[in-house]
Design goal:
53% of the residues lie in helices and 9% in strands. The chain contains 42 helices and 16 strands. The protein is globular. InterPro entries: AAA+_ATPase, ATPase_dyneun-rel_AAA, Methyl-DNA_Rec/Restrict_Enz, P-loop_NTPase. GO terms for molecular function: ATP binding; ATP hydrolysis activity. Pfam families: AAA_5 (PF07728).
Amino acid sequence: MSETTPSASTVLDTQAEFELEARRVKVAQILAAQAKDAERTAEIAHVESERVERRTEALQLLHAFWSTGDAATFASAMEQWCRRPGASFVGPNGQMFLKQLVSAGAPGESAELLADVLKAPEDDAGAVEKFTRLLTFIEKVRQGGHPAPARAPFLLSYVWALQDPDRWPVAWTSALTSLRYLGWLSKSDDPTRDYLDFAELVRQLGNPQELGHAFFWFEKHRFVGISPHLTERCRRGRALSQLVGTDGHYRDPAVREASRLNATAMAYELWHAVTGLSAEVAAALKHDVSAAANPVDTKTHLYRWWAWASWRVTSSPASLRLHATDQGLWIAVSPGHGRQGWFEETGRLAEKKLPLGYEFFQLLPFDDDPGRIIPTGRSFAGGEFLVGRDVPDDVAADPTAFCQLVVQVASDVASLLNNFAALLTTVADDDTGVAALEGPIPEDELGSLVAEFRSTRGYPTAKDEQARIKQLEWAAQLTDEELDVADLSVIRQIVNSGSYGAPGPQSRLNTTLNGLDAAGLEEFFALIRDLLWGPEALEDRLDRTFADASRFPGLGESVLLKLLAVAHPQRVVPAFPLKGEMGKARLMRLVGLAPPSTTLSRGAQHVQANDRLRELLEPHFPGDTWAQGQFLYWLRTRPEGAAEQVDDGDSIAALAEELHLPTDYLTEVREMLLEKRQLVFFGPPGTGKTYVARKLAALVAGDLSRVRLVQFHPSTSYEDFFEGYRPEVSPEGQLVYRLVPGPLARLAEQAAQSPHLQHVLVIDEINRANLPKVLGELLFLLEYREQQAFTLYRPEEPFELPANLLVIGTMNTADRSIALIDAALRRRFQFVPFFPSEPPHDGVLRSWLEQRRPEAVWVADLVDHVNAQLVDLLGGPHLQIGPSHFFDPELSSKRVKRSWQYSVQPFIEDQLWGRNDELLRFGFERAVASSVAAGGAAPPDWTSPLAAAAAASEDDDAASTGGTEPGR
């Protein structure tokens, strides 16, 4: 690491001072905004009066516990106490966690521990010691997820705050969340470090009790005005961005961290304003809006010194944006990215429609001066632009005044945003205003895409043929004559099946149909007959049916369009929705067609979109609307630059190099996954199973959007994993239950929509759950892909697992739970071992160290030596030390020893519990000495005589030292 230059040192020093001042001013904003909430002010006064009495009572209970050492009585007394007003100790982080600790371990084991750790420490070092004791105990007694280490900060800080409230702020969930939403606090896997960072930050900002109330309020009211330091943050971020080396990367980690904190604070500042005022903006624009913001880092992995957040107009690329730079804050219209030539089109249009008091701002290209905007008056200067006005500092800081300005600007530019949306979706071919084609994809380009579709998608497949057969079968039952005698079974088959297009789960419609009486059934079939065979134009029949369908809850547009596609395959393309990610409007843009004008009726929009798509694709798929629809959906999910994708062999080789595993091995594992569709990686903890699984999943899927990770635990249920009913409040205020899909159902639906793309579900700790209970009938579907089964909550909707949905499970064998996996599950998965002592994983740590930390290769000798002993002692490879303990870019002898003592050694002690003589050999110094004596490399600071003496006296030291390791 290069030394910090004087200029960098100066910038960092002033940045630290500025950061603290800016945070204190922001806290003052929050407190001022909260003070205007009279109900909240009264609530705080009431709570504080109750807490004074509760604190006195709790301290009495603590002193009684310290006097008697009776943890059970203490926990019981606390359970009664915490239900009194103002205690705020009820819940999983407080009383429930305390009870878990009291009952954990050997009888009475936790009492001495709790008596110590619940006494407030004098300083941070004492806090670290108490945290370490508690967390070590938790890891020792933990079963599944309980007791959870993440709950330790609240328990300790709450009890410490009773004793010393100014030094030890309570780690309220709302306070932690608020500080993270301000960009001032990060979360790690170390509860100790997280709490001490939190405590230090709160001490710097003010009174812990006052801040606790303020952050509780802020969690629900995040917009309190723009920070007066926002522009200065941009200036300082620009200065930090100059402190990079010739390679374009930060020269100093401290500069990188300061830049990250600065950029994150800016991003959240605007994000809170946008999310806090979305309802007001939507009302002023008369459009639905969604919040969006820029990432804090750039494509070159440097942190931004500018920021923006916007209200995006639904169904349009345009947005109303807040844009902050070192020049100030602007509120402006952004045209977004529509199509080629979009900035020129919208810029010229904006010149004609520019409201009074507004001007153009040119956004400079990233390579020129990223983030910089140049005012160009009321003239469009070309390139990417904004149209808006600046925000005075005093207005920005006042939430009421800022809200009024935002609403005023939104009202002023609403017409301009509508014009942008109309320009994208409607191009008039004459004065009638009827939507015309923007210009379809050129014929040669479309032909190339069709050829690629037939090749990569493999069209037609057996599933395509099955879809056609189903369509013919159903169409015969939907004729005008057959509908006179039809029953609901044919309708249920069509709408609940994924064959010939999937309209989605139809639980609500099934419930409606089940409740129909004779008159209702007659009315329902009359509606369907009129839609399919009525004499009027199709768009008129659709409009009438859409209006009448409200009498049958759940009878939506996608269901009605599927019935039409089945009955009229020559006319209707099986692409059912109009809007949304997979809607016809989006599909039209993909092939260069303008979606229908929104001035048309809903039915007319459906028909016009359908006819234009069919007209464009008919020459390539004559008379085959199923192929046309499949081509469009394939195009929707086709990776950009598909023709330039990296060679698969190169991808495998690159991943093998990253994972320090042989290319042939990874190739074989990938082939096993594609062939069997289900794999389980099993082995001791810390062997990289989850890491490799996620990397392999990303490689096979080709896009992280097609990868999903879930972690099983003893409480995981079928409803969590697949689907189940969840309560919610209806618009009428009644409690109803809705079928909510879980991660498997969601990914299966996504995979079914893109059958030419692989999707991968990674199930971490797959053996922690009750698998037969969690999987249910999915156990059948895992083996018999693309066959249908009726699931627990869909007795009338057949479900199937797509062939392109792959599953990778990980299984920790330290608890021998792999032996509990039944034969049925074993048959459906292939099991891939991850054992540190066996190829190819035996060389992973050594290879990583040789490449990243060559001076620490001795660690590989140590781990290999100890693992060999553990295999002998424990009768197998399932309880070894994984290499992940030592994948540390800053690895040193000190860090190795710390990791050994607080991670590796407790793991070994769990396996050799009660075998004290054998445990002695695995203390750090003894283990290193034994490894060196066996021919392994020694640490750089290792003293050879000590190593030799320790190795020679290995069998005698226990008695002579009373079990104490040499060197301690």
